[in-house]
Amino acid sequence: VSEILFSESSVLDQIMSLLYKVPDVERGICSIYHKKCSVQEFYLVVSTLSNLETAVKALVPAVQVQVRASLLHKSLLEIPELLSSTKKYLSKLNEEAAKIGDKTELFKDLDDFP
């Protein structure tokens, strides 16, 4: 905790800035889990997680050098790996259908989904 609060590491500032800009992903995931989300919200959550994976992956070299707390270091390095499948799922979604809320056209290819 002290490294987050008192560190002058630019990578931690970048990660905090990145997280401040993302929508409420936790709320969105809960909404998806409880089957209460809209098509737009579903697409937004998947898109946000995909963008987060890309952004954090770009910071991995800086994290390896600048972050000293072992648990924080490990957690930050695991983010890209844990979110790696989001790009695959995002590529299977129809952005235009999501924008207009069309559930029937949301998936580009239904063969991948039972």
UniProtKB/TrEMBL annotation:
SUPFAM superfamilies: DNA repair protein MutS, domain III (SSF48334)
Superkingdom of origin: Eukaryota
InterPro entries: DNA_mismatch_repair_MutS_sf (IPR036187)
Protein name in the entry: Uncharacterized protein
Upper classification of the organism: Eukaryota, Metazoa, Chordata, Craniata, Vertebrata
